Amino acid sequence: MTCWFWASAASERGSPVGCGLRAASLRPLGVDFNPESVRLAREAGFDAIMGDAHDPEFLAHLPLGSFSAVVSATPRITGALTEADGHAAATAALREAGFRGMIAVTVDDPAHAGRYRQIGADLVLSPFDDAAEVSVARLLAQLRRGDDAAASGGAT
To answer: pTM (2 decimals)?
Structure first.
């Protein structure tokens, strides 16, 4: 089973996603238009190719039937010259190309989740919110251990 993600293993978001998928015995493929990112991903042991995963023509040349999932982990690009939304472009292009697998996208702002679901994303991940939930759980666990130690007369 191949699970495809297109922020390559060298990127801030792609690396943890790729490592987690590989740890689950999946075979992620990194796609990036930065040759250095592709090189670093390959050095880390990932399959990686160069390309613009937000380009419908690039997507049309991939064997989409062999992918079980697509994870778009690229950041939204905003600035003076662009309001590019690669998640939306890629999700729409994948669905138009007949891709039936799972499409997941990452967002910085959970307010965008509904829009991506309307376009065809099956799962919207919010890395900062998800990390906050895990961090709070870890903090509470540590506090509880400290309370338990204090109650039993031990030091924390």
So the answer is: 0.76
